[in-house]
Amino acid sequence: MESLSTQLLVIGGGPGGYVAAIRAAQLGIATTLVEGGVLGGTCLNIGCIPSKALIHAAEAFEQARHQAAASPLGIRVAAPQIEIAQTVQWKDGIVRRLTAGVGALLKKAGVRVVPGWARVIDGKAVEVQGPAPESAGTGGAAATPGARIACEHLLLATGSVPQSLASMPFGGRVISSTEALAPQRLPARLVVVGAGYIGLELGMAYRKLGVEVAVVEALERVLPVYDEELTRPLRASLQRQGIALHLGCRVQGLNAAGDAVRVQDASGDAVELPADQVLVAVGRAPRTQGWGLERLMLDMRGATVRIDDRCRTSMRNVWAIGDLTGEPMLAHRAMAQGEMVAEIIAGQRRRFTPAAIPAVCFTDPEIVVVGRTPPEALEAGLDCITARFPFTANGRAMTLESTDGFVRVVARRDDHLIVGWQAVGRGVSELSAAFSQSIEMGARLEDVAGTIHAHPSLGEAVQEAAFRALGRAIHV
Q1: Above pLDDT 70, what percent of the chain?
Q2: Which band of pLDDT confidence, cut at 50, 70 and 90, is reported for residue 135?
Q3: Which of 154, 227, 315, 345 is 20 to 30 A from 244, alpha carbon to alpha carbon?
Q4: How would DSSP label each residue in 155-204?
Q5: Is 455 among the catalytic positions?
Q6: Degrees (nearest 5) of the Cα angle 18, 57, 365?
Q7: Which helix (H) or strand (E) holds 345?
């Protein structure tokens, strides 16, 4: 067995792990990263990036179908068709370029990449078994089967896995988001179990591709973690698109023939929803099994690893970041945590205390939440002003044929400090940076209102929301 040693050993090459490794190497720390699959983790390979590629393709196809009907823009085209195999090939090309880029960045920084599956021996040593042939060499290094790696610092960045249902395990017609992002052919009928952001993003994409879609949710609302004012435009869009919503319903499993989902509503009545495929999207769980986490006997918080504000676990020099540590399970949170851990190991004084972490749903319309919503501010005991500016009064939204939605600001009444931004509408994901920056910098309503925003742009709605909160609304 080959023996290796390193100052920092990172388990997991997803966004958190590879960012931590690169930053550590930049700071002169001898760093080794172990990844059994493909560099980039869930986000680059089977999550964030491929899902947004599929969503873009679905939107382009829907636009073409819209123009083929009776477009008010005066555009006339023949009825479009889609070759889903070519769509998937295009999506896979984007993924390959990005994962290859991660490998090149790791190599440039001087990170030693060991392809293989890590198994923890203790807080100072890991054994690595070589990967399957198709995943070898992803980081520009030869596979090292049977290697034992000793380290001073161990960083756990193992990510998460899709959650299944006991009544409907994955297999056959029942698929996770992983399979939904690489369809060999499009089903005629898709039932989505779960009305969270993953289920709705993919359900809407499939609907735009021409699939008949039904969504089943145990709670009474779509995106139940967000307040109803934000989700109301989305629900209207789902209904316009012809997506059947079965809210307040519980899934009991497939029928005997395996071609329909048995659903029970709140009154106890049962129905069967025909399905060629069933997408189970009820959330993700930390990847805690199969790599020896239990040997470390770390303090846990439920199913997640407990960490402090420096991402330290209960064992000295063992760190954890990303989905393994619980919500919010977001790639950009993991990346920020990974960068911080590398800098702490290098001797810098850091704490993970962001003022806000943006969350984006790439549905149609998109939803952005940064900081506190009005209900959250009230629950925290804050006396706040809330104001919103509708996109029906925004010229750029009109030219994009998308006036549904609004921008909303939440600010303290006493000093006008902004504590939250939310938006729903087409393309509002691009406003998330401005929202986060204003909260992180401690901006007040007057700061945003006094900043000249480009015209025409969706960003004008940000300034107008601040104006309205100050009682100085101009365009509404």
Answers
A1: 97
A2: very low
A3: 227
A4: EE---EEE--BTTB-SBTTEE-HHHHTS-SS--SEEEEE--SHHHHHHHH
A5: yes
A6: 90
A7: helix 331-345
- Sign of the dihedral defined by the CA atoms of residues 124, 130, 136, 142, in that order: positive
Could you tell me how many residues make up the chain?
476
Residue 59 scores a pLDDT above 90: yes
* pLDDT tens readout for residues 418-427: 999 999 999 9
Instruction: Tell me if 192 sits within 8 A of 357, measured CB to CB.
Output: no
CB atoms within 10 A of CB 309: 10
How buried is residue 275: exposed, middle or buried, by Cβ count under 10 Å (0-12/13-18/19+)? buried
Active-site residue identified among 56, 66, 153, 455:
455
Prior bond of 274 cis (ω within 30°): no
What percentage of the chain carries pLDDT values higher than 90? 92
Spatial separation of the C-alpha atoms in residues 388 and 16, rounded to whole Å: 35
* pLDDT number for residue 145: 56
Separation of alpha carbons 3 and 342, rounded Å: 24
**At CB < 8 A and 24+ separation, what contacts does 349-354 make?**
350/310, 351/309, 351/310, 352/309, 352/310, 352/311, 353/309, 354/440
Angle at 147 between CA 142 and CA 149, to 5 degrees: 110
| Amino acid at position 224, single letter | P
Mean pLDDT of 326-349: 98
* Residues 204-234 pLDDT 10s: 999 999 999 999 999 999 999 999 999 999 9
Which residue in the block uniquely carries the two structure tokens 């700061």? 447
Task: List, in sequence order, every residue forming a beta bridge with 278; answer none if it has no partner.
Answer: 174, 191
CA distance 396 to 458: 6
* Nearest of 5, 10, 235, 231 to residue 118 by alpha carbon: 10
Distance, CA of 121 to CA of 386 (rounded, Å): 53
Residue whose C-alpha is closest to residue 46's, from 113, 114, 92: 92
